[in-house]
Amino acid sequence: MNDPLHSAIADALALIEANAEPTDETLRALSVRLALAHAATEDEINQLAVESFQETIDDMQADKNPDHRAYLYEQMTTGLMAYEVQLLVDGAKG
To answer: Which of 44, 46, 16 is nearest to 31 (CA)?
Structure first.
């Protein structure tokens, strides 16, 4: 799929796969990829979805407790995977 939104989400997931720990550097890189995803769509629903992932990153950056960060990272990863699948399904329908 050559959709810029899907590409940005896939890049974010690849970054997560390569970095199992939610370090500050990884979170900054994820934030950039999600900013690209947000810019890649004019659809309000998709923009809101991407914004919710960005809010999770903001929460992780503010919370230095490693257990909390790990939990939020895992939840965000699961959410991004589900979102990617939904983008693929929507693309197949379209």
So the answer is: 16
CA distance 35 to 33: 5
Confidence band for 54, pLDDT divided at 50, 70 and 90: very high
What was the pLDDT predicted at 53?
Answer: 95
Concatenated DSSP letters of the chain: ---HHHHHHHHHHHHHHH--S--HHHHHHHHHHHHHHHHT---HHHHHHHHHHHHHHHHHHH---HHHHHHHHHHHHHHHHHHHHHHHHHHHH-
23 Cβ neighbours under 8 A, 6+ residues apart: none
pLDDT for res 93: 84
pTM of the model: 0.90
Vertex 38: Cα angle to 4 and 41 (nearest 5) = 55
